[in-house]
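Predict structure. Chain length: 1082.
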Amino acid sequence: MKPIHVLSILLLAAALAAAQPQAQLLIVAREYPTGKPLGGVTLNVTLWLDGRTIVLSAEANPVGIWAEQLETIPREVYLLGVSSGPANFTGFSLPQPSLPVRVADALIEEVDYRAVFQPSTNVTAFTDLRVPLQVIGEANASVVRCAIWLAPARVVNVSALDPVTRRPVRIALKPGVPLVPRGYLVSFLAPINYPVFVTADTTLVEARRLRFWVSNETRLIPWSYYAADAFLSTQLSVIDDSLRQLEAIGYPTEELRRDASMLRAIAQQALFFFERGNYTSAVGALLSLVGGVNALKSRVDGLFSYSQFAALGIILLTLAFAHTFSTLLFERGRALYASRLVLLIALLLAATLTSPTMRLAAAGLLGALGVPLAALDLPTLVAGVLAMGFLAYAFLMFVSLAAGPVRGFWLYLAIRYMKSKRLRTVLVLVTMTLVVASALAVSGVSLGASAVVRTSHGAGLYGLDLEVNTIRRPYGLNATEIEWIVTLLNASDVGRMATVPPTYIGVLVSGRDSQAMIFAQLIALDMRFAARYFNLTAAVYEGRLPRDGTVEVLLPKGFAETMRVGDSVWLFFAQPSMQGPPAPAGPVWDTPVKIAGFFDPLVLNSTLDPELRPLFGDLSRVNFLVVAPCNPLGSRLAISRVWFITANVTAARQVAELVFSSLPVTVHVLEGRRVTTYESTFQISFRGAEALVLLLIAALMNSVVMLGHVEDRRRDVYTMATLGADPKSLFNAMLVEAAILGVIASYLGWLAAPLINAALSTLSVWWGGVAVAVSPLPVESMFYAACIGLAVSVFSAYVPSRRASGLSRMGREERKVISPSELKLVSGMAIYELPIRVSVFESEALYRYLKEILPKKDILGEEVYLDGTFAISFAILPPHMRGALVTCRLRTVKRGDSLALLLEVPEEYKSYMYLSDVVYALETKLLDYSKWRDSQFRYQILRYAPRRETLTLDALLERCKDTMAKAREMELKLRRLDEMKATISTSLYTEYERRYRRQLNSLIRELLTLSLRLEPFVGQLREEIRKLEAELEKHKVAYELGELSEAEFKAAAEPLEKQLDEYRIRLKMIEEVSQFLASRRR
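Prediction complete.
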């Protein structure tokens, strides 16, 4: 072929090639955030082109571009993965690991991916990106542009402690590459000078997604700090909301505010530890804070219950006052009921306006009815209190209608006498009212737990000494709380004392003779600390002190008679036994412990603690005391005492208040030769002892008035006694009159006490003094006033009442004495008819009653006749005749349709001087026969409650399934409500949260009831499954041995397998119900 022809063909091919469309892949590497070209970086990209996946390895040129021709023009292109090596970034002298932060128009944190980092080559690889790339058409060429922005990367740690669960939480950082987690820290390769997102799997909505700026100096991203801040803010906001609601209704919250301020101080300490990365101490502070918040929430919630009970007591006292006072003013008719109702309303209105507790009780009542506290105002609270009063009044009317009119003689007599002497009644009421009001103004009673601060001499140490209340904290302080206090104090030394938990009474020491066990007490100490600060080495009699970290003990020298140094003994916890000595309950340590030495009890008893008290108790305790090292033998004991040594006394005082408010401990601040003790004690304190003089004067005045009243009524008392009035009724009438006066005066004094307080303050200002601060009377003052009024009135009326009953005895005849002429003589027996007759059908009842009232040792014989009568012989012992018995007989005789009871005595004893006493005792006991007979009646229920529906196993499982579905739906609503919490009001959130929580608790209780009904089926199902498996295995063995054909095996095995599957499914459903309940209990 000629050269000209070859050249023509080449030119034609080049022209044809230039005329066809072409495709090119253009990869651009840029530096973030400057946008400068990033040359020399090695990139491996994975692309998806129209269903095909290709992997390309590219190295950018100096201007950060790499190009590659594609075989075809793609319609859709996605970037599936990219890996980048080290690159030269601005501001860094050496190549740094690179991390893609943006691909095309997509930010890496906005897409899902998987990433790994290869430390050996400093290569980061991102896969599963699926970022769309743009295909740009230009003339005959199409360009697939892939712009990748890279940032320098460094390793940062993210704190992953969840403050809610106090466990590591799953953390994700975007854009970033996860590395190996280490405890509470999770390492990531993160871009420098870039805001990264930290996503956590936590229940805290505020901390699920946070953004942090990563700089070149960033070493730690404190996610736990911000999560703890959100958690603590949530906890404290609940307390603040409750306190604001209490303040809105006028309830004093000064003490609660002080406790809330202390909790905020603890929260600041916890945040400080989170910020510093001291997670162990942070958890300790968090535990204390959560305990304090729960305790304060319980106190706030308990205020409503307490106020409702207190308000109920005030309403009852108000109702009693209105009822009694109106009865004194009016006899009967409309005026009586109208005055009673008006007085009740006026008093309840006054109590609501003056008593914060009444308003709180009304708020609790309205809250139970669904009215949110934030929507309550004063008129609404007044309406609530009046509603409670009307309910109490309606209940009183119902009881009055059921009980009928008052028939008590002494109560009726007391009211009549008070109305007959109106001037005297008013005088006594005014006196008692002024006394009660004055006593309330100058005195008071404080009841409850209070902090006591006292000082004493010390042993010369500086720091803190904590004594744990093992009743409230059975297992003492834990290691986290101790480390928290050490960090707060910056303590130079720490010593612990561990004792036997209160669930046991001591330990049992078992030597070589395993049958002989000695009861003793066990104390574990940090031996190095005890030897240094308590000179415990001086008490060693033989051997040496046990060493920390060894399984050794120190025993009293009395044990040296049967044991030697180097021997091994067993230690068992001791628990009380119903019979005999204490019984072992389990080993203190899993292996025998070695005896390191013996101590002298007298020397050890002289060992003093930093407060100059015996460190180990009295001598009887020391004689049977086992001393062991706290590590490791104290691991199963309760740490009941901890000493912290520090030279910073100022920090010790500050930490003492913090620890005292957050832990159940008694705190001793050691300041050399001075010790300040903070202790919480339950105290009853009385203020204003001078009020006792007022009460004594009032009692004497009331006694004088009552004695004069008795003298005025002497003739009336004689007349009533002659007519047969009981002296006891007259005595009770006088006491009831005094009690009524006391109740009325107490209530009026309680109402007048604020007026007296205001008058005293006004007089103080008028005389040129300083105004006295007037505080509202607490609700307890009502009961205090009632106690004062009742005590003074009843005490002052006791002597006059006794005198009145004495006058009634003088006006009454003497008791009747039986004479021989009243006895009938029949066949050598003297017969006296007792005043009782019963129906013939009650013969058996009277027979059993007589056997009960007669002493069993005195009954000599019994006779029962066919006609229904009976006779009982018994003996009496005359006081003046030693060794002689008189045989008497009680016999029933028929008289028509009734039975009469006769007492038969031998004729020679008809003049027996003590016969009247015997008859009187029998008559007195026979008066109670009717009550005894009524108590013997047995009532039969003729109408029963409907029987509970009998459900099959399948029906129970179906109902459980429906109940669990409803419970899950309710939990979903609660989660949605939590997400909406920031966008709705507190009152609306509280209303829905209570409603859903109440419905959820009801469903859980219903499911728990159904689970209890499912329990009997569990054992039965497992037994049936075991039987079916055994039967199926039997058929399989027979088939494999050739005893059954294949058809016979299938015919026998298929029903068994079907039944077995059904039983397994049912058992699995029951287990699902149990797992559902167990997860909700947590």
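Summary: Residues 11-20, 403-409, 809-815 have pLDDT under 50 and may be disordered.
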